[in-house]
Prior knowledge:
Layout lengths: L4 E7 L3 H12 L4 E4 L15 E2 L13 H12 L7 E3 L3 E4 L3 H14 L3 E3 L3 E8 L2 E8 L2 E12 L5 H5 L4 E3 L14 E4 L3 H10 L11 H11 L5 E5 L1 H9 L9 E6 L4 E4 L12 H25 L7 E5 L9 E3 L7 H5 L7 E5 L3 E4 L6 E4 L4 E4 L11 E3 L8 H7 L2 H21 L8 H10 L6
Parallel strand pairs: 1-2, 1-9, 2-6, 9-21
Antiparallel strand pairs: 3-5, 4-5, 7-8, 8-9, 10-16, 11-14, 11-15, 12-13, 13-14, 17-20, 18-19
Helix pairs in contact: 1-11, 2-11
Amino acid sequence: MKESNFDVIVIGGGTTGCCAAIAAARGGCRVLLIEKLPFPGGNMTGGLPWLGFHEKAGHRQVIGGLPMEIIQRLRSCGGATDFVFDPVCGSAVGVNGTMLKMVLERMLLEENVSMLFHSTVIGCAGDAGGCTVTAAEKGKVEEFTAKFVIDCTDSADAAKYMGAGLITGREGDHQRQVSSYVVNFNRIDFAEMLDYFKKRPDQIRPFKLSPEVLDGLVKQMETAPLWVLGAFEEIIAGAQRDGLPYSRKQLIGVAQPAFDQLMLVSSRVENADLSDAGEHTAAEIDGLQQTWVILDLLRGYIPGCRNAQIVSAGAQLGIRESNHCIGEYMLTAEDLLKPAAFDDAVCCGAYHIDIHSPDHNGLETKQPPVYRIPYRSLLPKNTSRLLVAGRCISATHEAMASTRVAPISAAQGEAAGTAAGLAVRKGTGLREIDAAELRELLRRDHVILC
Length: 450
């Protein structure tokens, strides 16, 4: 790259990092986005639907701004479905992963964001004069400077280099939520699968839903472009008694008739450690190799799946949890379940607390109402030039189990990018910006602050 000096450097080019970069650029900043993969969008490009734009009760929209703009742009080119309301997740929208890459890249280009792919950050430091970021790619090391850094990685890579305090996994034993590969299958007979659910609606999800809710869900599934699944618990128990070494109680994923695909996140990799290349490699291999068992389960037991074929897998193992920064405020499950009225709230959420437990092969869930995420949770302690967004924000193991999903994480990215842009324009530090002014800017950009 020719340019080496920027106002803002965003590290991690998933959907969260893309929203941070776009927001900072729209705020007038010169922005560099650094990503280890050869494209923007991260694991969401593997075919994952976006869950959690709406609350469960009343279907009120809680996420707007850039995440919604991305979905609208995808819809305009046939790359996203309509929203489907869900009795657990609030809502779901199917996304074509390849078109997501293309749309994000176009949006970044429109805002003149500089992009550096195939690159890993190997150093990051900040002082009174600014930040220095060191990135390695293909045997070459490059150094960049900026006023501020936004860490949108899944493991707080920049925050660790800059001396922020970190908690790995849950407090106490540091166990992390299990990780999973995204794998897509086609040649699914969705009509046959639906016929089974009409007879056994209790087998669609692992939650106690009323007969009325289940009846409405089955009727919706007849025409819906996608259905969220935590399904076939009884069938899977039988397959496991037969000796099939499938590692979960349910089939976890989303049936997407609109795309003629079944998207699964049903592999179960325990306590994946991203800090050690050998252990990370073993986790990647474990996650992908579990697909053989999943394929046997589909073809041998699951209604409508006897002819299932693998279409694609994600670019890497999907990490649900790694490191949490210790920020100016640590968001807790209590803050979600009994929502705190933060005066510096920069985005909202309503997704259920969805813990893929490290202790057993099931799920642990709680349902919050609409909650708020404060700016202070994006501000790590012990640093002056760093913001974080996504899975590495200052949130507990339980709270992050809700805030981690794509729309809510991307909303955090937009908030961080907008805050960095405001600090650059005002010539102030990240802690000195006016929260009321930041919130007004976010409202102007159609962010929902509840």
